[in-house]
Every structure is written in C-alpha cells, then in structure tokens.
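Posted in: Structural Biology > Protein-Ligand Complexes

Title: Requesting predicted complex, pyridoxal-5'-phosphate in pocket

I'd be grateful if someone could produce the 3D structure tokens for the following input. Sequence and ligand are given below.
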Amino acid sequence: MPFKHLFDIPSSITYLNTPGNGILPKSNRRWREERERRFFDLHGDLRDQQPAFIQSVREDIGKIFKACTTRVFCTPNFSFGYNVLLDRLPSSYKYLLLDEDYPSLNYPIVNRNLNYKTVKIDEHLEQNILKAIREYQPDVLLLSIVQYITGIKIDLAFIRQLKQDNPKLIIIADGTQFLGTEPFHFDQSGFDAVGTSGYKWLMAGFGNGFMLLSEHLTNLMNEELHDRPSPKEAMWASKSMLQTFFEPGHQDTLSHGTLQQSILFLQETGLENVQKHIHSISAFAHEELAKRNLLLPAVVGRSVRSSLINIQIAPKHYTDLTANDIKCFPRGTGIRIGLHLYNTHWDIEKLLGILDTYNIQGNYEI
Ligand SMILES: Cc1ncc(COP(=O)(O)O)c(C=O)c1O
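-- Reply #1 --
Done. Output follows.
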C-alpha cells in the first residue's frame, strides 16, 4: 500500500533522514494550524483545558503501546524523562550500558558518578549482555532498542526471556529510534521503562515524548517515596507522586497534541501495516547494499535488523548526496539513512543509482 501521498514531500527530495527527525503527516500539520488558531482565540477556552487534554494524550499513548495510563508520563523529550527516572533510583545501583550508545543514555550515568560497566556492541550483542550480567551482576540494564549510529536492534524476544529469567533485573530502554516502526506491547515486553522523543519515527515534531513504566518499577519507586507528603493544594490533588517528578509543570498542548495526532494516524494506518511496509523496503535496501559490500559487518551477521542503515561510504560523499537532494546524515564510519512509511522502492533505487557513480566497494575507493 502506498503511503507517501499522506505526506508533503516535494518530488525532487528523497527524505532518508528519519533517524535525525521524521516528517509530520499532512493531516497532522493541518491539525496544528487549526489548533494554533483556536488556541489563541480569546472566545474559546482551549488554554484552560490543559490537564484534561494531556490526560487524553496519555490515554492514547497507553492504548497504542499497551500500557496502563497511570504508568504513562508525558515529557518534553526522551532525555528529560530518563534523567528524572535515574534520580528516582537508589544511587547504590550498578548499571550495565552498551558501548557507544546514545550519549543522552550513557552520560547521565557518568556525570552522576554511578557504578557501571559497558558491553561491546557487535553481532553477538545478546550473548555479550548475558555474559556481562553473569559476571557483573548489575541492578539495571540500559540500552537503546535501535542503535543511533549502526542501526543494530536488540532482539526483543531476548529481552522478554531475559526478564523472565531475571525478574529483579531492571531493564530500561530508549525507544526513540524504534517506536513508530512496528506494533509494541509494553506490558508484555520485559522492559521496566521505555522512554522516547516524538520527533523521529513517531513523526510528531519537537517538544514531546513520554516515559512508560512497568508495574514492578512503579511500585519500587513508590515504595521509596512512601513517607513523603502528597501535595496539599487543590490544583495538584489529582497528581500522583510520580507525576510530581515526571510532569512537574505545564505541558505544551500543541506539541503533545501533535504527538497524539501522530498516534491516531499510526493507529488508523495500523502499526502492523507500517511494519510490513518498512520491512519490505528495508529488506530490499539491505539486499542491494550487501551486494555492494556497503553494510557494517556486525549488521550483516544479524538476522534481527532495523530500518536505520549505516552505509559504509566515506562521509565526504555527504555533500554530493545533499546536492542530489538526498536527505541523510554522516554518522560513525559512514552515511546514515532511515526508511519509514513515506519511503518507497524508488527512493532506494535513486540512492543506489548515485552510490553506483562513486565507484566504491566497502569503504575503499576504487
Ligand atoms: C537513540 C536516541 N535516543 C534519544 C535521542 C534524542 O533524545 P532527546 O530528544 O532527548 O535529545 C536520539 C536522537 O538522535 C537517539 O538517537
């Protein structure tokens, strides 16, 4: 099923930069314009309906990603929610991180001077994690579901099994390069927390995100807070104690409303259809890039793959790709692309046509 017509993409542009930021559906942009107009109309009262509006956003997030609404927290981005979460965990905890994971994930462990060890990311990622858990016995495992440079995706069946075998291990994930690409059932995922920003694969622009918490982790954090008095003011009477941390102030309803519109769009499209489309075009891209020896060896060696692909050509080609209206980004040892709902086989053909003029094989110019 074609989806590109649901987005405003000029015919000259090949948009492959979703790992940087995604494109809003047309319907979403229309909603924003109308909302902005009504919001500032003094005859209306949208500005006074913030709590009820944000509650409806929480409900829609909970519905699509299968999490109880009381454990959904709206945040301005991934990093805000994640930093709040870390500060609610005992400082004695030991953390297991992945080498070269996104800095927003790893650096808050470093700057808090917490105890941690890192695991190498290669084609045997899951085995490396198991070995490190046996040896280091961490309290918390932290990882991005999809790595931002290489596109390496953790095997989600592995996470479910890991949690079953280690119920006390707290597993925290960054879903920013993942949520919006396939169906995801948070409460059955094995994760204790999944946070995200909305501006990439959720196609919701900047200034919105959320954090989902498991029942286990919610209870654990609430136990730590049990002796603190609840807010006494009537206007905060309905806030849960955890909300006073994750959602301490007023939220931007335009931005969170945009996220809500994207979620409704994904719901209507069907995340299983999104997955099917992405799978079809990224399988084609992987196959063609593998033929040209342009994939990372660690990616070639894995059956679990994402649609974030690091093409192993010298980053100097970025200028020429940009001149050809290919939107992508230099990252790590190559050029990063992402394939989403609005991309087509033709986008890949166009990219391959340009790559083929470079006369390259692997990272070696001929
Ligand atoms: C894996 C990952 N997590 C999170 C983010 C963004 O986090 P934030 O919006 O909090 O800066 C990015 C952005 O590139 C990312 O790649």
